[in-house]
Amino acid sequence: SLRCDQTSNLCCRKDYYVDFRDIGWNDWIIKPEGYQINYCMGQCPPHVASSPGMASSSHTAVLNLIRAHNVQAGGQSCCVPTHRRPLSILYFDRNSNIVKTDIPDMIVDACGCS
Amino acid sequence: GGGTPGCPSCRMPTLEPGTERRFLLELAKRQILEKLHLSERPNITQPVPRVAIANALHRLHVGKARQEGQPGPFDRWDGPNADELGYEIISFAKTEFSSPSSTGLRFRFSRGPGRDVHILQAQLWLYVRAPRSGLSPVTLRVSLAGALLSERQLEARAGGWQTFTLLPVLQAFFRGQEKTLRLELECRGCQANATAGSDAGGSHQPFLVAKATVREPGQRVAKR
User: Which of A87, B132, B199, B217 could join A106 via S-S bond, C-beta 3.0 to 4.6 A?
Assistant: First the structure.
């Protein structure tokens, strides 16, 4: 998936690290100290609509252009997460027990056009 | 709102830097509480001594379970089914003195309404200080509501961490509605306070470690 940089406004993954000290939760979350929440942003013009956000081959790009010129009006494609990872977390519950679990779909890994 | 319109159907406006930080910190908080099924962040009213935590985590990673080649709790594991959340929990005992040779061990667990908890592993870890003198063997007995659960004789002058498997006890406990599990620990032939961690600040506090899968209310039943 594309990572956002200044040069492109196409659909991409914007990295953002949340430090649990910034939200005052480092007293009950033992590990990790924070995590990459990341999010998706950028445009999804017709010729990349519904592409998985991977670098398309030239063949796919040509196909997309043909499709774009025949695209019917209506239907807007959005830049959304296409792959997310779990977050392994060790924390205190309200009885001061230590709990370890994997929270699913917490880290946005890849973005693409819906 | 305002600024250049984002994607009309997902209404995601382009985030200004200040907004980005506030928005993402709030999103992270909401996501974590929602996915841990917590209505609010836990307030730690009775913190466990850090040294007791370090000792417990050290035992679980280096301890006997690993030497016997079994994957110890808190190790990587193949995890639960897709529709169940896997949990591993360490619960430190609150100790109550019943008599010089016996101690009450109280464990508290949170119970979410309608959550289906399946206990897969449960072990009680106890630290026994070796007797300074005498050659009589030491006998450890663990009971629940007067019913003997497990008994072990230690060689004379033996001490250190002892583990007791309590799977049926914890499975029965989680089938009930109780929040507090109270075990009775008896140490025959021991010196007073032989279960070293009994005092609150003890670095060798007794603890219970369990592995469980939890199915939330309304979650589809996993196909076997």
Answer: A87
On the question of pLDDT at A43 being above 60, the answer is yes
**Tens digits of residue pLDDT in B155-203:** 766 778 899 999 999 999 998 888 999 999 998 877 766 665 555 457 8
- Give contacts of B89 with chain A, Cβ < 8 Å: 93, 97-100
In whole angstroms, what is the distance from residue B185 CA to residue B140 CA? 7
Residues of B in contact with A11 (CB under 8 A): none
Phi-psi region of B12 (alpha: psi -120 to 50; beta: other; left: phi over 0): beta
Q: Which residue has the higher pLDDT, B168 or B111?
A: B168
Q: If you average pLDDT over residues B129-149, what whole number do you get?
A: 83
Q: Å from B140 to nearest chain A CA?
A: 25
**CB-based contact A79 B7, cutoff 8 Å:** yes
CA distances from A29 to A21, A24, B42 (A): 10, 10, 10
**Tokens representing residue B96 in the block:** 């109550």
